[in-house]
Amino acid sequence: MRAVFDRFATPFITGLFLVSLISGVALFFHWGSAYFHGMHEWLSMVLIVPFGLHIWKNWRPITVYLKRAPMWIALAVSTVAAVAFVYPSMGTGEGAGPGGRPAAFALANSVMKGSVAEMAAILDVSPETLSGALEAQGYAVTSPDQSLDEIAGASGRSAMDVAGVLVSLQ
C-alpha cells in the first residue's frame, strides 16, 4: 500500500496544484467565476490528501528543512500574509458586515437579489434600458421582475459579471 502512496502522492499534488493555480487565477481576474468557484474550493480540499501523503513520504527531508532558517522565514512570511487578509474580515474593524465580511459584499449581495425594475429605478434608467443592456451582453432576461441573481444563474454567468453591466450604465 505504501508503494501506491509513494508513487501517486507527488503526481496528484502536481495535478491538483495546477487545477488550483489555474482556477485561482481565473477567480482573481473574475473569468468564468461560476465555473471555477466550486472547482477551486472542492479540489483544493481534495489536495489535502496527497499533500499529507507527500509530507509523510518526505518526512526526513522536511525535518532537515525545519532545522534551517529559510523554512521558518517562509512559514512566518506566509502566516503574516494570511493574517493580513484575515484580520480585516474578522468583524473587528469598521465597515464589517455579516459574518465578518466587508459590508460592501453584503450590499452587493442585496443588490443582486433585486429585480431588473428595482435596479433600473436606482440607476435612473428604464427597465427596458437595463434589460436591453443585459441582453446585449448575452444575458437571458425574461421579465423586469426577474432578480439579477436569477439572470446571472440562467445565463451561466456570475453576479460580478452582471455588476459590470450595471456599472457600465453609469
Quickly describe the structure.
This protein has 170 residues and is an all-alpha fold. The chain contains ten helices and no strands. The protein folds into two domains: 2-67; 104-168, no CATH class.
Describe, in plain words, how this protein is organized in 3D.
With 170 residues, the chain is mostly helical. The protein folds into two domains: 2-67; 104-168, no CATH class. 72% of the residues lie in helices and 0% in strands. It has helices at residues 2-28, 33-46, 48-57, 59-66, 69-86, 103-112, 116-123, 127-136, 148-154, 159-168. Helix 1 (2-28) packs antiparallel against helix 2 (33-46) and helix 7 (116-123) packs across helix 8 (127-136).
Please name the defining characteristics of this protein.
single chain; 2 domains; 170 residues; transmembrane; mainly alpha; membrane; transmembrane helix; DUF4405 domain-containing protein
Q: How many domains in all?
A: 2
N-to-C series of helices and strands: HHHHHHHHHH
Q: How many strands in all?
A: 0
How many strands, what sense, and barrel or not for the largest sheet?
Answer: none
Alpha carbon gyration radius:
22 Å
Work out the helix count. Answer: 10
How are the SSEs placed, and which strands pair?
Layout: H1 2-28, H2 33-46, H3 48-57, H4 59-66, H5 69-86, H6 103-112, H7 116-123, H8 127-136, H9 148-154, H10 159-168
Helix pairs in contact: 1-2, 1-3, 7-8
Keywords: Membrane, Transmembrane, Transmembrane helix
Protein name: DUF4405 domain-containing protein
Organism: Pseudothioclava arenosa
